[in-house]
Write a structure and sequence with these properties.
By secondary structure, this protein is mainly alpha-helical. It contains five helices and two strands. The longest helix is centred in the last third of the chain and has 13 residues.
Amino acid sequence: MALVTIHPGNQTLTEDEAIRSCLKKYGIDYERWPLTRGLPVDVSAEEVLDAYATEIDELKSSGVSLMPEGLERQIPPPDMADLLSFIKNWRYLDGRTPLSQ
């Protein structure tokens, strides 16, 4: 199941077509990849990536940018700073990857 929460307004979308339609406004294509094996509820990020390794490799090799065209013009500078900080530091959030000293 996919779940997308849109801010402001805290609109929650769960249906694939509603998510696809909402994201399309921002130049983001949405695909729902079938899962060929079950995953536990408490699945780690690594297990999710492993489960979709084939699809991710195909997407990477397509040459298509994973950042939607023009997204940087739609995000206010403070929000862009938050996004870049998250992208730079996400791997440290679970505490398993040490910060370099």
